[in-house]
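The instructor's notes for this session suggest beginning with a concrete chain rather than abstract definitions. Hand out the sequence below and ask the class to guess, before any prediction is shown, which regions might be ordered.
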Amino acid sequence: MTVKQNKKELYMECKKKAKRAVAIARGKTQEKLYRSLESPQGQKDLYRLARAREKNERDITHIKCIKDNEKKVLTNDDDIKDRWREYFRKLMNEENEWSGELANVPTNLGVVKQVSIDEVRMAVLSMKNGRATGPDSIPAEVWKFLKGDGWSWLALFFNKMLHEEEIPEEWCNSLLVPIYKNKGDYEDLGKSDRKKNERGD
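After discussion, reveal the predicted structure:
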């Protein structure tokens, strides 16, 4: 018998032992789970699991059709894009009643001061963790972790924009993601259901 055959037999034997060990462990886990279901806490856990699975199945991750203003169902991709464009253009350009005056706002006199590292530090530390990132995909936690080095770089970057009076082109764009909130008709973007059905994040 060659060395290769010996290794193959050893591998097959180890594979069988691994399968047996996995089967035994799975059986013990299932038996433990079944016993736990007989207890009040186990029944609560089962109910919680069933409710979570039902919610996941109810979530809508991709809407293939929506309705227009006349409640007609749109299925063509271009028509759906046009409907979303119309919906958000109207949503983002609604006029609110406003006198045009800002109350208790100090007037900026003279040249704008440079952004200090301390201002950047306070702004970064006030940001919440676990929030969605922007186009650069850099979360707030990164700037918090970098501390002084990161704050100095940001201060330099902001002051460069102040001096050149230009902002990055990427900052002029935004990405809107409609999120269905499990209320009302998910295909309907009408006036009556607009605020409760969809929000843009």
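Then share the key points. The mean pLDDT is 78. The longest strand covers residues 178-180.
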